[in-house]
Task: structure prediction
Amino acid sequence: MSLIQLPAREASSPAPKVTAQTLLDRKQAHQPITALTAYDYPTARIVDQAGVDVILVGDSLGMAVLGYDSTLPVTMEEMLHHTRAVRRGVRRALLVADMPFGSYHASNEQAIGNATRFIKEAGAEAVKIEGGRNRAALVAAITQAEIAVVGHIGLTPQSVHRLGYRVQGKTADAIDGLIADAQALEAAGAIAIVLECIPREVGGQITSALAIPTIGIGAGPECDGQILVFHDLVNLTGAQPAKFVRRYADASALFAEAVQHYASDVRGGAFPADAESYHLPGEASAELLQSEPIKRSQR
Ligand code: KIV
Result:
């Protein structure tokens, strides 16, 4: 770790805190909601200071930063660890934590216990749960426990072995099912619903059928808001992006160039320069020059 100064914390946040009510107001005013994932402190600061409304500590961190093949192995402890780091970087955005696979599937008690940990131990302001009608009673129970819940339907990565990573909602039955899912989550008290990988037309239909906001990822521009995975946005994944991803920067190329430049400077003696070195005060330096050279130890 270098001895760099940590940036001073802002005395007060200039923009008002985003809450569940803010998201609802945005929907009613037809002002798009912005959302991104973050998994650590520096990224959270960047995303929050850019004015993004919702920051999701997604279980996509399993792939994006932990190198797993899917979201399935991600544990509660990993999610809590990353949510705490993100919490320290967020002032304004609504902070949502993803409940990982297995953390809400056994019983309402298990789910409420784990959701409570996100709020109490990691400072999340809401939790996200995958599933529709099959999770509506659970969403109601968690909401009853005073914890705000964001739903997630369409392509739900925790169901990969049942559904695959495929666009959902392509038949009339599937569309009816998704609309029923969304309405059940709304009736259960969800504050917003993520719609992942569904046809644009279906995203639009669900959005107009609901009073609560929809946040789309591959669900078209009619959704009330959009979310992307930060690592997709800046190309830090090393994988072929999905159709719905737009890359706004190439951080992989930028970082690779910086690291190659550094290594070549070290090898060529160009780093560190004198200006990047500490120096003895004049007197001590003169004394050192006059003293006998220290003998190199023998190996
Ligand atoms: O885990 C995640 O990043 C997500 C988003 C894709 C919505 O669930």
Notes: The pocket of 3-methyl-2-oxobutanoic acid is lined by residues 37, 56, 58-60, 98, 152, 194, 217, 227, 229 (CB under 6 Å). The chain has a mean pLDDT of 94. The CA atoms of residues 57 and 276 lie 37 Å apart.
